[in-house]
Design brief:
Blueprint: E1 5-6, E2 15-20, H1 27-37, E3 44-47, H2 64-91, E4 96-100, H3 104-112, H4 117-128, E5 136-141, H5 144-153, H6 169-183, E6 189-193, H7 199-214, E7 217-218
Length: 236
């Protein structure tokens, strides 16, 4: 399958796109699926949400001290990633850079955890001190009940991830409300309703948007993925 894209003349700046959304909506699945589709295309560069596979503190902890430490850790990971993006941006032109998560997620989750005001302000001040590399946000969303079904189906409530409070629907609703609040007046946000879409459908939608935003033209991507890839496997 050919995945060649062609760069228009004069198009030199890299474009940085974050894939955003609440846990369980399917960000990482879509991120990895798009990455696999363009695996042999050097015009794309992918950066994960963090470099530590097992975080030292559980995300989403109801304990405010632990919650603060987890968000500080996550922020540190995103700062490290941002520096790597800056270094890449200096070296290369005409690339499409795809990020798993937006830096805004740290503020959104910190708000949702109802941290102490001084702790949240420390995170906010640190975020505001960074010149984040991000041009556009693709925000994935679905109905809360659908997201809860995806969370349960992916098995993320097993073992240590139970400490992340992903089974708490009120927590989910709070995060969704803050995503709406933080993204409502932000430029460069594209909403993608994943309610009735497969991961491949979402990727194809993203490809169309990337084409519009970048000026690149993609050769037709063949449907080379199993038909068993459906919403039940729409896992983050």
């Amino acid at each position: 399958m050919s995945k060649t894209i062609y760069r228009n003349k004069g198009s030199k700046d890299n474009i940085v796109i974050s894939i955003a959304g609440v846990h369980g909506v399917g960000k990482t699945t879509v991120f990895n699926l798009l990455k696999s589709k363009v695996a042999d295309n050097n015009k794309f560069k992918f950066f994960p949400e963090r470099y530590v596979k097992k975080p030292p503190f559980p995300f989403g902890s109801s304990n405010k001290q632990i919650g603060f430490r987890s968000e500080i850790h996550f922020l540190q990971q995103l700062i490290k990633r941002n520096q790597n993006i800056v270094n890449f941006d200096i070296k290369y032109n005409g690339r499409i850079i795809i990020l798993d998560r937006t830096p805004l997620c740290v503020l959104i989750y910190s708000k949702s955890l109802n941290l102490k005001e001084k702790d949240y302000n420390l995170i906010l001040d640190t975020c505001n001190s960074i010149q984040w590399k991000e041009d556009y946000i693709f925000y994935l969303y679905a109905e809360p009940n659908t997201i809860m079904k995806r969370i349960i189906q992916r098995g993320s409530l097993e073992n240590n991830r139970k400490e992340w409070n992903e089974e708490d629907k009120e927590y989910l609703l709070t995060i969704l409300s803050y995503y709406k609040q933080f993204l409502s007046n932000k430029e460069g946000v594209y909403m993608i309703n994943t309610e009735k879409l497969t991961p491949e459908d979402v990727v194809n939608d993203m490809v169309n948007k990337i084409t519009q935003l970048s000026g690149y033209t993609f050769e037709k991507l063949e449907k080379s993925f199993s038909t068993q890839m459906n919403l039940l496997k729409f896992l983050e």
